[in-house]
Structure formats: C-alpha cells, structure tokens
Specification:
- It is a single chain.
- By secondary structure, this protein is mainly α.
- Helix content is 84%, strand content 2%.
- It is built from 15 helices and 2 strands.
- A two-stranded antiparallel ribbon has the order 1-2.
- The longest helix has 37 residues, at 290-326.
- The chain is globular, with a radius of gyration of 21 Å.
- Mean pLDDT is 79; it is low at 1-11 and 203-213.
Length: 421
C-alpha cells in the first residue's frame, strides 16, 4: 500500500445554482438534439425506420448500461479517492468491448438487421467511454465542461444523421453518423476536458490510497450491484418496446417511440437535478449533517413533483396537437389516442424524476445493493404490465405498463431510502 499526501490551496467551486443551470443546459440541449434526430428520421424516412432505430436503442442501451457498471457514480461518490482514474477508465474500456460482443451475439441469435443495431450500439459504447471522463469533471464540479461536451455530441449527431439520411435514404447510414458523432465527441471533447483534472487531487480528499493488488477486483465488487441495477433499469424501460415490436411490428414501435422522445425533456431536467445533487449530497454525507442531507433531498423531491405536475397537465391539454404538428397525423392517432399515450408517458416520466432524486440520495449514501433488489422487482412489474396490457390496448397499453413500472419503482426506492436514513 502506498500513501501520498497532497496539500492544496482552496479551490473556488461554482455555485450549486450555477452548476444546476449548466447541467440543465447540457442535458436539455443533448436531449433536444436526440429528439431532433427522431424528427429527422420521421420526416425523411418512415415510421418503420423510426421503429428500426428505436429497436437499436432498445437493444444497445441496456447492454451498454450494464457494462458501464455505473462507474461514473462510483467515481463521483468515492469517499477517499481509493481508486485512480486510470483504473476506472481501464474497466470502462473493457466493459464497452464486452458490450459490443454481447450486442453482436443478440443480433445473431435473434436474426436482427445487423447494421442498424450494431451501429447504434457502437454509438452508445463510444458515449460510455466519454461518460467516464465526464464523471471526473463531475467530481470536480465542472458542469460547464460537461455541458459543452453534451452539446457538441448532440449537434454533431443531428448534423451527421440528417446529412447521411438525406443523401442515402438509409437508416443504417444514419446510425453510422450517430456512432461517428459519439466517437468524435469522446476524442475531441471529453478526454481533453478531463485531462485538466487527471493529476489534480480532489480537494475533498486528504489522502489517496491506491491499492496495487486486487484494486480492479475491489472496484468491480463495489460497482457491480449498482451497474446491474442500472442495466435492469434500462431493460425495464425497454420491455414495453420489445412487447410492442413483437406484437404489432416496427410501425407501432415507431409511434410509441415518437411520443416517448417528447418526454425526454423531463428526463433531462430531472437528470440534471440528480447529477448536480450527487456530489453535494456526497459531501453532506461525509462532512455535513444528517439534517442538511435530508433537507436538500426533500427540497429536490418537492421541486420535481411540482414541475412534473405541470408537465402532465400540459400533455393532457395539448398532447394530440403537439404530436400532429411535429410528426404528422399518423403519430397523433385516431380519437386523440396519441395525446393519451403522451399524457401517460409524461406521468411515468414524473415518477421517474422522483426516482432520479431518490437514486442520488441512495448513491450518496453508498447504498448500492438495495438499488439492485428494487430494480429487479420493477423489471418484473414492467414485464407483467406489458404482458397484460400491450395485447389488449396496444400502444396505450405499453404506455400504461411504463407508468405502472415507474410507480412501483418510486414506491420501493422511497422505502429503501427511508430505511437508510
């Protein structure tokens, strides 16, 4: 064991509100660009193309998230700096290689179109590599650089997908544009931005203890429960999509995905709050008071609940018209069904936003194992909901299955955090 002591002068950090603003700008801009990608595919292509692209995401995202092992969260909440950044990076690189192997095996086993699924999976894998660099920036409260990288990634993705789809009329080439944008962002933005902090000690940490023997195994053992929980969470979100594609085909999945992408704005808002909360809650857990920890958590839950209620009300009033104007008549559905789907998905997003905040509290408290058990139960709820509701109600049934899973998720996370506190 080797121990190195660092003496550092106080570093002025951005304010919480400033970091929250940058986080919302970065996450919001990135989500907006992801939605623009869907609009481009819907306008230049067909609902089936939207469905093919959404299927690639539905397969690639859970696999990559599982392979991510939520190392970014572990890095941000590492209380004593026990693992060097290069260890996190090495594990992430290996994980992304394994993820691409698993995605390839899924393509072969189920006879899927290889080009779209593999290229969308590659885009997610490149994003995963860049994500660990963003974790280092987050640990040092540099949300501005994180936002810049997200905006570059989103802008490049829209530009390349639009250009290639317009020039080739091929969804596979569009997916290749998405993968290229993610790779360029990793190499040109994420790695250079984080390079400023690679050798800079964290001002919160008085001692850095880096174990040479068993270091990677120890890191994997710490991260595995949370990584499995994240993978299960992504799989839960996509279970209704699998059921829709299997039962009604790519066109129905495309209609559902179009409505789902509209509520990404809410996810981005809630994710920005959680990302900004996480390092603050970690500091309150280590150096602050239980009352301060609880107070910040309750304020955040209240803010998410109020903002989410307004979003559900807006979707109920204007959902069908928004879908009609953005995507076309076939996405709005007959008798305003598209609006009902959007309203239910918005409700599910609000419940998910509460879970984002609860997850931040659990992660700051380093309660990773409990999250795995909860997410396994939620996956079961999503599967049962999709099995019962999709065959009878179609796209609307998939939306309700998503909302039921989100409600179970929120209730269980609340109980786990209550016990932890």
């Amino acid at each position: 064991m080797t121990t190195t002591r660092h003496r550092t002068s106080p570093v002025r950090r951005p304010s919480f509100t400033g970091n929250l603003a940058w986080s919302m700008a970065g996450n919001g801009g990135y989500a907006l660009c992801q939605w623009f990608v869907l609009v481009v595919v819907a306008r230049l292509g067909t609902p089936a193309m939207v469905g093919d692209y959404a299927l690639g995401l539905a397969i690639g995202a859970p696999v990559v998230l599982l392979a991510n092992l939520s190392l970014r969260t572990v890095l941000v909440t590492d209380p004593n700096g026990e693992h060097p950044f290069r260890r996190y990076l090495s594990v992430r690189l290996v994980g992304m290689g394994v993820a691409m192997g698993v995605i390839s095996a899924i393509v072969i086993a189920f006879g899927l179109s290889p080009a779209v699924v593999l290229l969308v999976g590659a885009a997610k894998a490149f994003d995963g590599i860049g994500d660990i660099y963003l974790g280092l920036l987050q640990r040092h409260h540099d949300q501005r650089s994180i936002a810049a990288a997200q905006l570059v990634n989103g802008g490049l993705t829209v530009a390349l997908v639009a250009a290639l789809l317009w020039g080739t009329s091929s969804i596979a080439w569009a997916a290749a544009g998405s993968a290229a944008a993610s790779a360029l962002t990793w190499l040109m933005c994420c790695a250079p931005f984080a390079g400023r902090f690679r050798n800079r000690p964290d001002p919160r940490v008085r001692q850095h203890t880096h174990r040479a023997a068993g270091g990677v195994a120890e890191l994997l053992w710490t991260a595995l429960p949370l990584g499995l929980a994240s993978g299960l969470s992504s799989l839960t979100v996509n279970v209704p999509r699998y059921a829709l594609e299997h039962r009604l085909g790519a066109t129905a999945l495309g209609v559902f995905a179009a409505a789902g992408y509209l509520v990404l704005t809410g996810n981005v808002f809630f994710s920005a709050i959680a990302q900004t909360l996480l390092p603050r809650l970690t500091e309150l857990r280590v150096h602050g008071t239980p009352a301060g920890f609880r107070g910040l958590l309750w304020q955040s839950l209240l803010g998410v609940g109020v903002a989410g209620g307004l979003g559900v009300w807006a979707a109920w009033l204007f959902g069908s018209e928004i879908l009609r104007r953005l995507y076309g008549e076939q996405y709005a559905g007959a008798s305003g069904q598209g609006g009902r789907v959007l309203t239910v998905l918005t409700l599910a997003t609000v419940l998910g936003g509460l879970c984002f905040v609860l997850d931040a509290g659990l992660s700051a408290a380093r309660r990773f194992t409990g999250q795995l058990a909860v997410n396994a139960a939620v996956l079961l709820a999503a599967g049962l909901g999709a099995l019962l509701l999709v065959p009878r109600y179609g796209v609307l049934g998939a939306a309700w299955a998503t909302a039921v899973a989100a409600l179970v998720h929120c209730a269980l996370k609340w109980e786990v955090l209550r016990r932890a506190l």
